[in-house]
Amino acid sequence: ILVKFFRVYAESKFGTTVGKYFSTYIEDYYNSSKDKKEQFVRFENLINVLRREKKILNELKSIATQKQVALVSNNREKLDKSIKDEERILPLIQRIEKERLMAIDEFYVENRQARTDYHLETLLEKFSSILANNVADEIKSIHLELKTLVEDLTKLNKQNMYLINHSRQFLKETMATIISSSEKSILDKKV
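Below the sequence we write its predicted structure tokens.
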């Protein structure tokens, strides 16, 4: 009865997909053993860490896009702000990545298995027998979104590096032209 009530509430509050996910998760949780309940909590912790990581990477992508606009428009103030924002967010990324690695380590330690790597695919393969389908699907979904975000960030950073290098080259050529023409008068001094 409680699960049914929660499903109706969650569906009305968050939509059908989220409501079904939560209610299935709760139903699986209550119908599981104590060990499985602990695993549910650990996987939910991992999912929360992955969601926070996705949020931070989305913010970093937005900053990289703002930086690109600042580079193209040659807006020093916006560029400085973008750099400061990046510097602010990088420690957050490092911290959340450490949390992700610790959350993954917990599964291997708790289940007395040797960790071969920190890839989510490996984790899902090794622990598929204790995972509810909706939890595995949620982890896979977030993993794909993270992968796409990293690819987008890599592309933006390469584009930004190209713009920076192009601007440097243009500046060097301009300076070389000015220096080489200092022997000749740039302006005709005849009045």
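The mean pLDDT is 81.
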